[in-house]
Specification:
CATH superfamily: Decaprenyl diphosphate synthase-like
Low-confidence stretches: none
Distance between the termini: 33 Å
Strand order of the largest sheet: 3-4-2-1-5-6
CATH architecture: 3-Layer(aba) Sandwich
Order of helices and strands: EHHEHHEHEHHEEH
Radius of gyration: 19 Å
Length: 245
């Protein structure tokens, strides 16, 4: 992998590889519309691309990668599109055994209570089967929202206060972080958002506090391995000071 960044001597061989990459998979519907196809066809194509990018990220050396698959706000979409997405999740969870063979740990983040029982069971099965793998962790955010996640953490701590197990003044940022869906996952280093949009869209608000952002005009189904490499090289050139000098 000897991809060069224009005007730079950095290659993937000597680049700083982010530990945790977050991907906002955007543009599936527009990809389909440009081709005169139903939006669900774009979602199918985007799901296939997620598999390819996951494998490539593992080869590059990324240890954690989180894909924003379905937000808490996505329920507002037309019912047939939501149903198609849920069916797609079921189908691809059946095929996640490919990742298990490659010793990829699988995690799901978000509120599962609104999902079908069969989908919840498949999520649990994938997590259970892969819990001891450590080559890379793949996180899928389904029915996920950053604000909802922080609220969930605060409710957990509030319950402990109510039960007398915790004093309000003893609550720390570390406690809030540990009670997020990603309590044992490092913060996001790099957020990639294709499709030309430049916003976070309620994605991992807490975890992205010091993340670097990479935007691309390419729609997600066309965001290939070379585009992913460009994002890694751009990240590698950033000077991350975390509030320091």
């Amino acid at each position: 992998m000897a991809l060069f960044n224009r005007g730079s001597k950095i290659t993937l061989e000597n680049a700083k590889i982010p530990v945790h990459v977050g991907v906002i998979m955007d543009g599936n519907g527009r990809w389909a519309k440009k081709r005169g196809l139903p939006r669900k066809v774009g979602h199918r194509q985007g799901a296939q691309n997620f598999r390819a990018i996951t494998r490539h990220a593992k080869e590059v050396g990324v240890k954690y990668i989180t894909f924003y698959a379905f937000s808490t706000e996505n329920w507002k979409r037309p019912k047939d599109e939501v149903d198609a997405l849920m069916n797609l999740f079921e189908k691809y969870l059946d095929e996640l055994d490919d990742f298990l063979k490659e010793h990829v740990r699988i995690r799901f983040i978000g509120d599962r209570s609104k999902l079908s029982e069969s989908l919840q069971q498949k999520m649990l099965d994938s997590e259970r089967k892969s819990k001891d793998y450590d080559i890379m962790t793949l996180l899928l955010a389904i029915n996920y929202g950053g604000r909802d996640e922080i609220c969930h953490s605060c409710k957990t701590l509030a319950q402990q206060v109510k039960e007398g197990k915790l004093e309000p003044e003893d609550i720390t940022m570390d406690m809030i972080e540990q009670n997020l869906y990603t309590g044992d996952v490092p913060p996001v280093d790099l957020v990639i958002r294709p499709s030309g949009e430049q916003r976070l869209s309620n994605f991992m608000i807490w975890q992205c506090a010091y993340a670097e952002f990479y935007y691309s005009d390419i729609l997600w189904p066309d965001f290939n391995n070379d585009e992913f490499d460009k994002a890694i090289l751009a990240y590698s050139e950033r000077n991350r000071r975390f509030g320091g000098v």
